[in-house]
From TrEMBL:
Organism: Adlercreutzia caecimuris B7
Coiled coil region boundaries: none
Names of the cofactor(s): FAD; FMN
Enzyme superclass (EC): oxidoreductase
UniProt-recorded name of the protein: Urocanate reductase
Length: 656
């Protein structure tokens, strides 16, 4: 049997993000993921090390301290006796629930069990882990202890064990596409093993908007059709014709549009055929041959999720780069958490036969002859898992927006050179692991130069979660206070424009009516007051004051807002930038006024492993690689939350 090793093909891949060694216990799954089954890895305490906890002395009592996590402070409460840390509890935190949960459970447990601060960060939750460790260190010092000594105390012992597992199917990656594949396969009777690089399921969906594109059964969620929507619709059809889409296909969409309103409808129009034209005009690719079948897959995904209890609420909206209002969000869930809460519940209530190997990145594909028959990876506690699979392996390891080396290697679009620092919106782990593994077996990598940059990432931490204002239709100004772009353009055009602005920075401007804040929090659960405290948001009672806060000339800024408002009211056309879809709701008129500072960051990689209609990996000559399937952003042409549909579609075709 032949094994392909990512460490040999791309030596720096395994260590690209974490500078510290990673402590792990694969068996410890946080409360938020209690429904998920994992393989057991139980680190043992080693007795070597300097400054052992047995020599510690504390002033007995209960102490509290805080340290910064990702979203905000993490506060711990530590109870100490004269010679021991008796308990550690995280009492307050703002970090994403699912991402931080393994760290909030495991790090305190290990500190108490080992009587040591020499425990490492949980993979994918580094900032939360370090905040807990530093907060406990503060408490130790408050109790007259020696935190520096405890940071040299006992640490978990690494395992050298190898475990063999037999399964029907291996899925590599527990993001959206991987989880859809694993759950769908298990629902149809397969024993599934999932390798996951981080300590949790969710991938990038947990730090994205988590927007689901819906076409059917949501008439009550549609906004009213506006003149701006009509103008955008007609512009999309004209662009489709200009791009060579067959006229009969475009004419059929126009006829459906006309019939919809002739029947007395007043809400925004949509259809899977129009979706195909819209996405082809923005992302490229053939509308009828690629995007229309893709729309049907997305619709199948929606129905499957709804059948499992996924619910959406609110009004359909557009988002940056995709302004047509067809995006819906889960009820009472931040970002993409709604998807994984449903998956948790499905796994638990249906007792699905899925084994999750968290913190176990796949490093090898096992090949028998020319067929992929399994995968192998090492858990961060040292245990190696070799899993043989009768049905083969599905790669769902995501894209490579977190790997600057690969971005630069394949870049065909952006003004980057070897010295460019490329930030990313991605969560930990999206470094092209699956691409390297598949290429090592002869798979073709296609369209790797198609790299989508996010034009409105947080200007400090590059996240997508701190946006205040209408990300799809708000007013964008640069640091001089000047409007510089049609805000409804695709992400490629928007990002290119942002890169040309002073400091490569912009502000999304909004007011009390269109900021998107509800009870002081944005759509992703961030407190506006906290964002202001961290200089991630500016708020003022006048436009002049807001201009001063962002360093812009008040007169220049006021003119930009006045001109924008005139277009929004319909007083004048946008003759400078050509934006069509605006309404009075977009106007900036009522205090308080907000400016959300943003910049660009690598976000989505559209190219990937070449696949056939059944998602089988293909070589450059079009031959399929037996037993190897690729879904989600790891595959060519699929990206974003909607690519979750490829995981479901792959399994349904495999088992048809």
């Amino acid at each position: 049997m032949k094994e392909i090793n990512t460490a040999e093909v791309f030596p720096t891949l395994r260590n690209i993000s974490l500078s510290r060694r990673t402590f792990v216990a694969c068996a410890a799954i946080a409360a938020a993921q209690a429904a998920l089954v994992s393989a057991g890895c139980a680190p043992e305490v080693q007795s070597s090390g300097e400054g052992l906890a047995s020599t510690a002395a504390f002033a007995p009592g209960t102490y509290t301290a805080s340290a910064p996590g990702k979203k905000g402070p993490v506060t711990v409460e530590v109870r100490m006796s004269e010679n021991a840390i008796e308990s550690v509890e995280v009492v307050e935190f703002e970090d994403t629930e699912r991402i931080s949960a393994p760290a909030r459970e495991r790090v305190p447990q290990q500190i108490v069990e080992l009587q040591s601060l020499n425990v490492d960060a949980v993979t994918g939750a580094t900032l939360t882990s370090m905040a807990i460790i530093e907060s406990v260190a503060d408490c130790v010092n408050q109790a007259n202890g020696d935190a520096s000594a405890l940071k040299k105390a006992a640490s978990p012992e690494k395992s050298d064990e190898t475990k063999e597992i037999q399964a029907d199917l291996v899925v590599c990656g527990a993001g959206g596409a991987g989880m859809a594949a694993a759950v769908a396969a298990a629902q149809q009777g397969l024993d599934v093993v999932v390798f996951e690089k981080t300590a949790y399921a969710g991938g990038n969906a947990l730090v994205s908007g988590g927007w689901l594109e819906v076409f059917e059964g949501v008439d009550d969620m549609k906004p009213d059709m506006t003149d701006g929507n009509r103008d955008m619709f007609h512009a999309t059809l004209q662009k489709s014709l200009d791009n060579g889409v067959p006229k009969d296909f475009v004419d059929a969409v126009q006829a459906d549009f006309d019939a919809y309103f002739a029947a007395g409808n007043t809400k925004v129009y949509d259809s899977m055929e129009y979706y195909a034209l819209d996405y082809a005009s923005r992302n490229g690719g053939p509308a009828k041959e690629y995007w229309l079948p893709y729309a049907h897959k997305v619709n199948d995904l929606n129905n499957w999720l709804f059948d499992q209890g996924y619910t959406v609420s609110g009004t359909l909206v557009g988002i940056v780069g995709f302004p047509w209002p067809r995006k819906a969000h889960a009820v009472d869930k931040e970002n993409g958490e709604g998807f994984f809460s449903v998956f948790d519940n499905t796994v638990e209530t249906q007792s699905l036969p899925i084994t999750f190997l968290f913190e176990t990145p796949v490093s090898e594909l096992i090949v028998d002859g020319k067929a992929v028959v399994g995968a192998s990876g090492q858990c961060a506690d040292g245990t190696t898992y070799r899993v043989m699979a009768d049905r083969g392996v599905i790669l769902a390891t995501g894209g490579y927006s977190g790997n600057p080396d690969l971005l630069k290697k394949y870049n065909e679009m952006w003004p980057w050179d070897e010295s460019t620092v490329i930030p990313t919106t991605n969560s930990y782990g999206h470094t092209g692991d699956g691409h390297v593994l598949a290429e090592g077996l002869g798979a073709e990598l296609k369209n790797m130069g198609r790299q989508m940059v996010f034009p409105i990432a947080d200007s400090i931490d590059y996240s997508t979660e701190t946006i205040v204002g209408n990300a799809g239709l708000g007013l964008f100004v640069n640091v001089n206070g000047e409007r510089f772009i049609n805000e409804s353009l695709d992400r490629f055009a928007l990002s290119a424009a942002v890169m040309k602005q002073p400091e490569e920075k912009l502000f999304i401007i909004s007011d009390a009516l269109n900021s998107g804040l509800v009870n002081g929090y944005n759509e992703q659960g961030y407190s506006a007051d906290k964002l202001i405290e961290e200089s991630k948001l500016f708020r003022a009672d006048s436009l002049e004051e807001l201009a001063q806060m962002i360093g812009a000339d008040p007169s220049v800024f006021a003119k930009a807002v006045d001109d924008y408002n005139a277009i929004a009211r319909g007083d004048v056309a946008d003759t400078v930038f050509g934006r069509e879809n605006m309404s009075e709701k977009d106007a900036i008129i009522e205090a308080p006024f907000y400016a959300s500072p943003r910049t660009w960051a690598a976000h989505v990689t559209i190219g990937g492993v070449a696949i056939g209609p059944d998602y089988q990996a293909l070589t450059a000559d079009g031959a399929g690689i037996e037993g190897l399937y690729v879904v989600g952003e790891c595959s060519d042409g699929n990206s974003g939350v909607s690519s979750m549909s490829t995981g479901l579609s792959c399994v349904n075709q495999m088992l048809a």
